[in-house]
Amino acid sequence: MESEEKNANIGGEDKSMSAKKNMKIFFAGFAGLIGVVLVLSGVVGIYRTYALAATDNFTLAVAKVLRLPVAKIGSTVALYTDYADDLHAIKTMRDYDKANNGPGANFTDEEMSDQVLLRIANNVLLDQEATSYGVTVEQSDIDALKTTLMQQFENVDKLNEELGKRYGWTLVDYEKKVMRSYILQNKLNEKIATDDKLKEEVKAQAQSVLDQIKGGADFAEMATQYGQDGTKDQGGDLGFFKKGEMVPEFETAAFALNEGDVAQELVETEYGYHIIKVEEKKTEDVVNPDTKKKEKVESVHARHILFRYPSVDVFLGDLAKKTNFHLYVKVHNPFTDLNK
């Protein structure tokens, strides 16, 4: 009898141990299944991020958890979630402009993606240089800009409503994504514009180009290579202009030259340093609108090469040309031409 009870107990224990073992196997298998699902979800999310540049909730959740990068600017990684968030904002703006005949109504998907990526890159470089110059955004700066912004709206609720319609943002979002970088860029511009070392570097470059032209270099080719205004693609060609149409310093230098001459010294104006060449001159009879009488008016056809004073735009543009950009997602790459 005792032997039968013992066997029964042993049998019960065996069943209990077997059941526990089966439960362990079940949980282990279930945990493994969850792991496989998570891995597959991650793989799918990564694929949708980099191959499709998708912005659905699933893809963004994976990108957020894994902190997937959209690009690398120098040594700084920019996150895909920031790209997707800004892309959503600019698409919201496009829809708003379409409904209200705004300037962004005809933005293409490629143009919007380019704008977002360039903005992200600009902010990375801006933060980098602001740090090197010791420039920071203070709460007082933000409060002052908010006060200016609020002058256009009845109250904060109205402002939030407008920001929501235009960008899908609140004032908190707008402060973080727009106001901070706007203030930082303006403060950095003040620092750069008064940096005597940078100004001397600009002058030295201008003088070097002028010396090359004096030595026989083609003026139009040098203008295309070094010019920093809209005439560079036309070899610096300004066409004909009369007195009173240019800033005084530029006008005085240009009208003092003979046809074919290049100014032997740099001409400094409010815009920067110019190298000037006069192609031809002409004098025409023009009716004076006040006296109704004909007067002889001299015109000059000139080219120039402008070397702009240091500014945050020029500074960041030059910095971008020296920076390595790596784009991870399969979208149009707006950085391609920067390093050429």
Automatic annotation (TrEMBL):
Membrane-crossing residue ranges in chain numbering: 25-47
PpiC domain boundaries: 175-280
Top-rank taxon: Bacteria
Coiled-coil parts of chain: none
Pfam families registered for this protein in UniProt: Rotamase_3
MF terms (GO), sorted A to Z: peptidyl-prolyl cis-trans isomerase activity
Keywords: Isomerase, Membrane, Rotamase, Transmembrane, Transmembrane helix
Protein name (record): PpiC domain-containing protein
Organism: Candidatus Magasanikbacteria bacterium RIFOXYD2_FULL_41_14
